[in-house]
Amino acid sequence: MLIRKITIKNFLTLYGEQTIHLPAAAGQSTAVILGPNNSGKSSFVKALQFLLHQRLPGCKEETAWLLINNRHRDETGVKTEAVASVTAILTFGDSEMEVRRSIRSRRTGTGEESFSDAAISFARLQTTATGSRFVEDDGTVQRRLDILCPDTLLEAFFFSGEPLDGKLLRGVNQVRESLEEYLSIRQWRDAAEAARELRAVYAREMQQLAQKNRELDTVLRDEAQLQHQIDEKRKAKVKAESSMSEQQEALDQRQSAILGIANQTQMRTDVEERGRLELQLKQHEQSLEAAKGEICEEVGRSAGYPFLLPFVGRARKILGQLHKDGILPAELAPDFVKRVLGMEACICGEKHTTKTRAAWHKYLDKALADDVSTKLKTLESRVNESAPNCLQRNVTEIAKLLIDARERAEAAVVGKHMLDGTIEAISERIRQSPIEELRRLEMERKKLAATVENTKDAITTLTKELNNLDLAKKRKKEERAKMKISPDVERRVKELERFQTTADSLAELIDNSIGALRRQFHKNLQEAMTDMYDEHVTDGTMATILTTLLPTIMQGGRRVMNLGGGQSQLLGLAYITSIARLRNALHAGMKGLGIRLGVVGEQAFVLDCPFSGMEQHYIEAAVKGLCSAAKQTVFLLHGSQWLAAKRLLEPAANMAWGMHLHAPKAVIAKLKPEDRTYFFRGENVILATESRASGEAVYSELKPLKGA
């Protein structure tokens, strides 16, 4: 969602009608709004907050009149309405909409606070053949805005921060829920539930069809029960996989912390050696699992052939006798012989005689049914030593593969056993370290490693149970396929079964995709945070994305609770730019899968004084990151922040405005020189002027800067 145009009328310090056209073209665009403190920069951000979510202090009907500009209220006559509004044209890819949120309050007397309860309205511009007019929103537009910019993530994209408001990083549950909504995870979950409900609808209809057939009804009920068990096991597996991700993350953090401490001590060699051996151990474990899988696969592929070998000789003898008796090869099918006997003439063209009919009957007595004949031919090819699919040859090949897999499995077990002992000996030395912190971390690491292994075993067990349930369900379907039911019922049952299978596959795909998406979210966020934070800090701290998708700072494997102002600000800015990159990546990924969730890859940043308390190199890092992360960025800066960011921001700015402050002489006198006069592209711009009349309310006006 980008902002193409915004008009603010008599809202807070902004007097009259102030309009800004923001660049929203292809590629990144950057705009700057310069102005002294208290000139209305925060009013600009609050105007956006009010427009999008009506979320501001004093936004209740009885006090909302306070949001109307003071000067405009002073000019409003008794029994006349004072009106404030925020209007914006918002773009979504190729489409756009114009929305307006207004406040109306009637003056009831001459006193300063003699205003009635305000009426707040939200409308969208509607264009018809007869013209355009604003129509009250029925909730549709508001719901769309809530998805494109969730209320609890508003602090990320439209914030006034000196420094960045800590609510972004403190409200863990709210931010996580909003982030999931922002990334459309909720829509995926809804789709999965809808697919399951659809499958249940088909199952119920199948059971209704089967009510007159007790046998079929019983089988369908068994299938439904198996499906319920499958769903429960899948949920348990997804939960276990999520837990293992969190456990592995905690384990990796302990490993990093141990290595960080060990690098400064004599334990470094032990820790590095253990890491190398653990990598080898993992390779042995993977080799063992692969060998076990191959053994299972080959045993299954053998179909019990090795047990048939003792009977091959007897089978050859019986088949030889069938050839001797003229039963094999069965060159003519019984149905064909019957047709010949039913005709007046033989296949040679002559009329049947008693002799020819007797010959055909003799053949028919010895003829085999088609399916028996086919099976005997197959058996003959399997016992024939010269045939390519000979049973003996197949069994020999399978035996070789099984022996090879068994040898690899045994080698992996031996290697794993040897490494287990060596790793445990090194771990014990680390646990006996004189450094208390190292001992503590090692004990935590050991517990976490055991927890990860237990969870991994639980996932393996759940996977086996799921496979068994799937196999049981498949057998029930095969049992149902053999039942004799009416053609109409059979046709509808098959159709419903196809629908049911499709819905089930969709639900499973979405469940798996949510897990994959979350893992991809984590990866993308971590990469972006590393680029913007880790590369620029000087104290060795590192930004880490937790499994909750929220950021934290680690140093030596432990979370840092008290950050300096510059670091805290950079962390917040790095996180919100990471979210923007993440959403772009998500949009591209969804589009690649053919899934359309609207244009979600475009995000605007409106940042009010974001560089407060930051050192110069942090400011430059933040500017580079912000300008490249979002398609549209608006910086609202006072004098000192403009001086600090000017070198990078001035050439990057596509457009620039000044927030011109009109205030009494006493207010102007308190301003610093850099807050009165700004230097922009070779021009001195004065943005603070004394009020013309004494007692006149403070107000501001937006003016485009020359050279922009």
Describe this entry's structure for a reader.
28% of the residues are buried. The two termini are 24 Å apart. The protein is elongated. The strands form 4 sheets. Strands 3, 8, 12, 13, 14, 17 and 18 form a 7-stranded mixed β-sheet that branches. Strands 2-1-4-5-6-7 form a 6-stranded antiparallel β-sheet. A 3-stranded antiparallel β-sheet has the order 9-10-11. It is an alpha/beta fold. The chain is built from 21 helices and 18 strands. It has helices at 41-53, 70-75, 140-148, 154-157, 167-170, 172-182, 185-209, 214-262, 268-302, 312-324, 334-342, 354-366, 370-383, 391-431, 436-481, 487-534, 565-592, 616-629, 639-652, 665-669, 673-676, and strands spanning 2-11, 14-21, 29-34, 81-92, 95-106, 119-128, 131-136, 158-160, 542-545, 551-555, 558-559, 604-608, 632-637, 655-663, 677-680, 683-686, 688-690, 699-704. Residues 159-175 have low confidence and may be disordered. It has 4 domains: 1-22 and 40-148 and 654-708, 3-Layer(aba) Sandwich (Rossmann fold), CATH 3.40.50; 159-195 and 501-650, no CATH class; 214-267 and 433-484; 268-330 and 368-428. Helix 7 (185-209) packs antiparallel against helix 8, helix 8 packs antiparallel against helix 15 and helix 17 (565-592) runs parallel beside helix 18 (616-629). The longest helix is centred in the middle third of the chain and has 49 residues, at 214-262.
